[in-house]
Amino acid sequence: MPLTTAYQGEIPYLQILDPDGNLDESLAKGTLSDADVKHLYEHMILNREYDDSAFRLQRSGRLGTFPQCKGHEAAALGAARAMRKGHDYLVPYYRENPASFYHGLPMHYILMFWGGDERGNAIPRNISMSPLTIAIGTQGLHGVGHAWAFKYRKEDRVVVAFFGDGATSTGDIHEAMNWGSVLKAPIVFSCINNAWAISVPQDKQTGAETFAQKAIAYGMPGIRVDGNDIFAVYKAHRDAIENARKGNGPTLVESVTYRIADHTTADDARRYRPAGELEAAQKLDPMIRTRKYLETRKLWNDELEKKTWEKAKATVADVIAQADKVSPPDSDDIFNHTFEELPPDLIRQRDLRHTHSIGLNPEEIGLKPQPEEAAH
Amino acid sequence: MTEEMERDENVFLMGEEVAQYNGAYKVSEGMLAKFGPRRVFDTPISEAAFSGLGVGAATMGLRPIIEFMSWSFTLVCLDQIVNNAANVRYMSGGQYKVPIVFRGGNGIAHQLGATHSHRVETIYARIPGLIVVSPSTAYDAKGLLKSSIRCNDPVIFLESEKMLNETSEVPDDPEFLLPLGVANVEREGSEVTVVSYGRTMQRVTRAAVKSLVDEGVDVELIDLRTLRPLDTATLVQSIQKTGRCVIVDEDYGYCGMGQAIMASVYKRVFDYLDAPIAHVHSDEIPVPFNHYLEEAMMPSEERVIAAVKDVCYR
Ligand SMILES: Cc1ncc(C[n+]2csc(CCOP(=O)(O)OP(=O)(O)O)c2C)c(N)n1
Ligand SMILES: [Mg+2]
């Protein structure tokens, strides 16, 4: 008997705005308006300024570490713009500041967080997003859980869960895509392929040519987009979100971009990046082509560029001042957020600032007696 | 590692960033250049995959050294270590051995936040089949690591990112080995036994003991070196002599390493004790990201000194 084909899949690639700022009008139809693009470009400038300032703060010892988002602006903002603000749910890893800020996260929160104040990860209730994830890949499954909750409660909300190319090697991401697809959960898996996971390049992370093709095995649509093209990122995410909202389940979107900065401020990419790669990637910088596009549409000029940067600098300076104004966390805070109701032994540890086992009585140092002795 | 790899062709190193990058903390500096990509190689971010591959390779006679960027990340591959590495010898009726070393940074290592600061000692020390080692000096690290690589059972080797720059006299002898399962009496004393290990030993215990000795407290200081098998003979002998004991670690109190050590010796030392055994440990909260709060939740020299004076009724 001859061999037949059991399954054949295909992964489309989408680019609408090319590196020179030329737009494919037919593909762009019904996507971003002039005002949208202008507004998103202003956001890009704001984020670049934020990255630069945060980098300087880290170098002067005021932040522990900081992962810059440079290069990811279109990939994050295109997805963020495709979501319904305050309704759809953003699940970031740690390199989506542009999306988080777009959705209204106060900008000083991220500075607080990387400065060692975890109240910066306490997302205000009116912002529809989860805290940053540090353990790689775990957020994919949480995203499916959030989506399942929306479906369960018959809410028409959709989750957009971000993860890096490196994160696709974690079991969690595969289990999330598999199960998300089985459940037809309203979620979009947004893979930010920035070519590197610290010093590990794509071909050490996967034997596949694209990350998007992994969708085929899980029985959901997959698409690869030019992640430096705000139109393509927006369109792919919008279509995926609306498809999910209709009850048709998840899509995997791979946005191909580049990590222009080091992994974090603790890294030096010059040690492993092949010569010329950064320079080539910088030519594809999403800001260059977005600006070119706006200029050809007569929506932008040097004057606006200058003003917007000035405004961004002032905004970020304000944000830093705001972060500075926050009084440092108290050691009570770290106890108070450990349980809903603090058990007696932890109340004692909190009040003593040292452990009960060294044998002091709280009364001896003038603290009120505890209602109950610790069980151990 | 280099010495053992030169000695035994079956030894190889894998982990995230160990090759090209020379190790996330530069532990494997120069090893890729020396041994090439067959024996020193980078893995994807798949802790379960490389732990599991290691177990499979070890049962086929290789001797993998697996570096984790942090022991905290092993929570995603617990199954491979606890259910597989530790059980294979037993469940194969002794057919297979798993000569593998899992190593990496354990515990609180300055502003790594709650998810990267777990102290995993009791997660692994309670599992039959695993050997758990925790060095506190460069000298110990060399002797114990070499023994671990030559050991025919899976070894959990707990380092600390904060100790990698630690220097001490280290023998050049390629046959320099320290036995696993044997504690080190670092200072002999008559009045009180202080027990500690790993980073805590280096960060606070030694300094606290020095202050106490300067004040005239005759402390016997024991560095455990290995947490499983625990050298109870040395501990019991010492506590029977001094009649007092303080255990210092950065683990949590409840179900923590200190409590396990205490329970292991209590019956045999009870009649000799002049005071209940004390335990100085971290506060029982997730580890704060903030520098000051992180410091505040860990044992400090003051806490150790207070605890020792307390059991000595000074
Ligand atoms: C489970 C786990 N393993 C390893 C790490 C260490 N680590 C932090 S970031 C990172 C690389 C992630 O790369 P990628 O997913 O591509 O995201 P990118 O940083 O490139 O945006 C690694 C290995 C971690 N945080 N969690
Ligand atoms: Mg990446």
Q: Can you put this structure into words, describing what you see?
A:
The complex is a heterodimer of chains A (376) and B (314). Chain A is of the alpha/beta class. Chain A is built from 15 helices and 8 strands. In chain A, the strands form 2 sheets. Chain A has a 6-stranded parallel β-sheet with strand order 1-7-8-4-3-2, sandwiched between helices. A two-stranded antiparallel sheet of chain A has the order 5-6. In chain A, α7 links the parallel β3 and β4. Chain A is globular. Chain B folds into 2 domains: 162 residues, Rossmann fold, CATH 3.40.50.970; 128 residues, Rossmann fold, CATH 3.40.50.920. Chain B starts with a helix and ends with a helix. With 314 residues, chain B is α/β, with parallel strands linked by helices. At the A-B interface, α14 and α15 of A face α3, β12, α11 and α12 of B. Magnesium ion binds next to β5 of chain A.
List descriptors.
heterodimer; A: alpha/beta; Rossmann fold; two-stranded antiparallel sheet; 8 strands; disordered C terminus; B: 314 residues; 2 domains; seven-stranded mixed sheet; 12 strands; 16% strand; globular; binds thiamine diphosphate; binds magnesium ion
Pick out the low-confidence regions of chain B: none
Biggest sheet character of chain B? 7 strands, mixed
Bin the strand percentage of chain B: 15-25%
**Bound ligand species:** thiamine diphosphate, magnesium ion
Strand content of chain A: 5-15%
Q: Which oligomerization state do the chains in this entry correspond to? A: heterodimer
Structural class of chain A: alpha/beta
The unreliable regions of chain A are 354-362, 367-376
CATH class of the largest domain in chain A: Alpha Beta
CA-based shape of chain A: globular
Biggest chain pair contact, residues each? A-B, 44 and 47 residues
Number of helical stretches of at least 4 residues of chain A = 15
Tell me which CATH architecture of the largest domain in chain B applies here.
3-Layer(aba) Sandwich
How large is the radius of gyration of chain A?
23 Å
Strand order of the largest sheet of chain A: 1-7-8-4-3-2
Q: SSE order of chain A, as H and E?
A: EHHHEHHHEHEEEHHEHEHHHHH
Structural class of chain B: alpha/beta
Between the first and last Cα atoms of chain B, what is the distance in angstroms?
46 Å
Give me the Rg of chain B, rounded: 20 Å
Spell out the helices and strands of chain B N to C.
Answer: HEHEHEHHEHEHEEEHEEHEHEHH
CATH fold node name of the largest domain in chain B: Rossmann fold
